[in-house]
Amino acid sequence: MNAHDFTVTAADGSDRPLRDYEGRVLLVVNVASKCGFTPQYEGLEKLYRELNEQGLEILGFPCNQFGEQEPGTDTEIQQFCSATYDVTFPVLKKVDVNGPDAEPLFAYLRAQAPGDLGPDAGMLWDHISTNYPELVGTDAVKWNFTKFLIGRDGEVIRRYEPIVTPEQIRADLDDLLA
């Protein structure tokens, strides 16, 4: 099994088989419109515009599980992404990334790349360990803008925690796309 075996749901309710992305590098991100990390949309869009022709696909999955920072409907989220950040990469249907109702793709990604968010994350770590202690020491996604890098073959390569900006992962993408 790999990431290409999953089908996700687009914002319009249609199915989006990840098998359609076979041969491309995927960056899967849980996103939110009202988060301190929301400006990362700008960096993600820049990566997408610069690297899409070389084989990069970015898939955004809105999630309201962290501080209720993605309260809108799928239509409102699409409008926000377009109007505020001119996002052209796919932003899919709002999902849960943790818990019993988690999108199966995210359950898989979490198991493949459990993450390493810890005290070196500063204020984010302090917030999570204080307000979401049940997430500490687990494979759970800890906050919005966690990114999962998937190779052309569908295998999960690594997880980037929210404090890692799109600009900081550019070298990894360039290596995979070369």
Automatic annotation (TrEMBL):
GO terms for biological process: cellular response to oxidative stress. It comes from the Bacteria. Residues 1-178 form the Thioredoxin domain. InterPro entries: Glutathione_peroxidase, GPX_AS, GPX_CS, Thioredoxin-like_sf, Thioredoxin_domain. The active site is at 35. GO terms for molecular function: peroxidase activity. Keywords: Oxidoreductase, Peroxidase. SUPFAM superfamilies: Thioredoxin-like. Belongs to the glutathione peroxidase family. This is Glutathione peroxidase. It comes from Geodermatophilus ruber. The lineage of its organism: Bacteria, Bacillati, Actinomycetota, Actinomycetes, Geodermatophilales.
